[in-house]
User: Fold this.
Amino acid sequence: MMALRFEVLGRFNRARAARLTLPHFTSETPLFMPVGTQGTIKGLTTKQLEEIGCQIILGNTYHLALRPTSELIDELGGLHKFMNWPRALLTDSGGFQMVSLLHLADITEEGVTFQSPVDGKPMLLTPEESIQIQNRIGADIIMALDDVVKTTITGPRIEEAMHRTLRWIDRCIAAHKRPREQNLFGIVQGGLDPVLRDLCVQGLVERNLPGYAIGGLAGGEDKDSFWRVVAQCTASLPETKPRYVMGVGYPLDIVVCSALGADMYDCVYPTRTARFGTALVPGGVLRLKHQSMSADTRPIDSTCECMVCKKYTRAYLHCLVTKDAMGSQLLSYHNLYYMMQLSRNLHSSIIQGTFPEFVCNFLRNMFPKGDVPEWVCNAMEVAGVDISSCCHNT
Ligand SMILES: [Zn+2]
Assistant:
């Protein structure tokens, strides 16, 4: 059973532009999804998020379950209503947060055991419980609890995690009480091992889920391994279902993964880096804290149409960053706008048949000297996107 519709509207080789219809909103892919940890994206109102063009927001189940709790969210009519967000939501399983935030988390066949950060008592998150919590929160897309292992780990642990992820998906499917309103996505694990990744993809595809995520990346693996895993998974995941690369990424990663046929992304980077005074621009990043900004009367990016770039100078933002919350709010606004504009450009260039031109233009801005990293050149070759005009490596 599915509560989504995924229509591919255009393609360039492996890249696709699609329309994703979810219970609360119809989105366009490729799509960046901002992370709103506690039902909020720090400092921005939901009105502003709509203005920026955000279509799906990610909520962290672990944080929401601790505060305000999933029972209270359920009682108040679900997370959409609770946070006043009329568009789509996605929640993660909570497992990743536990493993990455809590030192004492331990994974057994039953689930993830951890020490409660509230009272220190041992607690257990099972696949059933993760789904029950996510059913209460009520997001349009919910994620299966998987056995998360860092990609940099090797050996039998990776294989165990992949098999356990497959066993747990059946427990998640069985526990899912709202398949007509919420879409359960499975997560492909298997580290950097192509055989394990393939087994996991096949296992998940057999379960005929509404969508699939590629997990376990963005964990410190080298870039060449990263794109090869994405390329391998997107090649064997169904053409008719959305593909979500979890925890990715930087603008360049998103362009590469989209060329390889991925559709959805999430990352804390644009808002996190905003809090450190960094703005995303076509050339890479602009550090507003730098002394050279103190008398610069230009906007962050003269080609950006966002409210911040229309109204404020670099000099003003230099004054605010790190000293006033307003600084990081304005930079978050611009950075999310940048990511959403990137999403829109990817979508429209694929539809219009100008995807290679868009990619070359993007790379020329980011690497004006033509020093495009080799992993990007390699990935683009597999994606069938000719970037020779902006890349002196090839
Ligand atoms: Zn802007």
